[in-house]
Amino acid sequence: xxxxxxxxxxxxxxxxxxxxxxxxxxxxxxxxxxxxxxxxxxxxxxxxxxxxxxxxxxxxxxxxxxxxxxxxxxxxxxxxxxxxxxxxxxxxxxxxxxxxxxxxxxxxxxxxxxxxxxxxxxxxxxxxxxxxxxxxxxxxxxxxxxxxxxxxxxxxxxxxxxxxxxxxxxxxxxxxxxxxxxxxxxxxxxxxxxxxxxxxxxxxxxxxxxxxxxxxxxxxxxxxxxxxxxxxxxxxxxxxxxxxxxxxxxxxxxxxxxxxxxxxxxxxxxxxxxxxxxxxxxxxxxxxxxxxxxxxxxxxxxxxxxxxxxxxxxxxxxxxxxxxxxxxxxxxxxxxxxxxxxxxxxxxxxxxxxxxxxxxxxxxxxxxxxxxxxxxxxxxxxxxxxxxxxxxxxxxxxxxxxxxxxxxxxxxxxxxxxxxxxxxxxxxxxxxxxxxxxxxxxxxxxxxxxxxxxxx
Length: 456
Description:
By secondary structure, the protein is mainly alpha-helical. The protein is built from 18 helices and no strands. It has helices spanning about 10-35, 40-55, 70-85, 90-115, 115-130, 130-135, 145-160, 170-180, 185-200, 205-235, 245-250, 270, 275-295, 295-310, 320-345, 345-365, 375-410, 435-445. The model is unreliable at about 1-10, about 410-435 and about 450-455 (pLDDT under 50).
């Protein structure tokens, strides 16, 4: 008896359509039910202001004192929506819904190509229904666009992995846009580019290096207009934003405790009075000085940030946090199983997936470990959890069927003899050996039926 019935995923297109409709409906419910009176604040308000200023001809600036404080893509994205639908927060939320559904499709197709249809359906379902992904659909943050761009980049690089180097140019452009959406993404983009050195079939070191060089070159080309714009406006070299120095100081100052809670930062009036770029440079110097003078304290803060970034424990945030952990921790467990199983089946794919959480972990052991900055890693958790769920639930289904067979074959007559009807007079069947992880995943790959294309 198979671990999963063949009828379940016979028509993969219908399952995919059902999951995409689920993603759409759940995001619509979240936006209209929980964000009916939403007004952007903090980071969201600054991007909203940048979009308004851009459309009003004042440039992509928050105000005259903050001309390069935020990455440009979210502001341009909001401006594009506003240009069509007017200054409507609801219109951006609807656009976020569309990006979220596209992300679900990229996740499905990527996992399908690597591990098969059943893991792909699980991964897409998790991405469609994961609470934090749903929640940020209603916010005017950078998270929804960056999640779609990360999914697109991973999908593209897997699709093109054995092509000639020039084919990787679109990957570099997408990663460049990702970096211009969230300034903490450059290490992720670099790791994804370096993955091509080990993740593709090629002979000779030049052929292996060429795709990575093309990706990095196109990434630089993509961000260059923003760098030039910053230099022309500010007269200084600002590759992404002017906030990098302050962000480093926020995480590494005498008041820092290694948590993601804001406000624990020492403000210095003399530095606050400086122009935008000089202020960032001054805070950066102070942060580096703080790190150099007390490396032990920096190590303690880094370990604390590691724990906080991955939310390994209760942070005292009440019932909402308990509900989050009830979903997050099982998903994390399934993802760990997915890494273990995926490593045995396709280690190149697992290494590609791990570029995202690995790079973000390193970054936020140095910078603030704010929870929403973990979302790209949680997108990868959804992908890997789909692989883990296929194996886990396959094992459970197999164990249940074995128990049912044992109950049927073990019925006893009133006189103490075995009931011949339970086995038809035949000798008892031999005990079946436990399925291997590879066997269950290979079985899952074959369950797509004629509608499911085989993995690449």
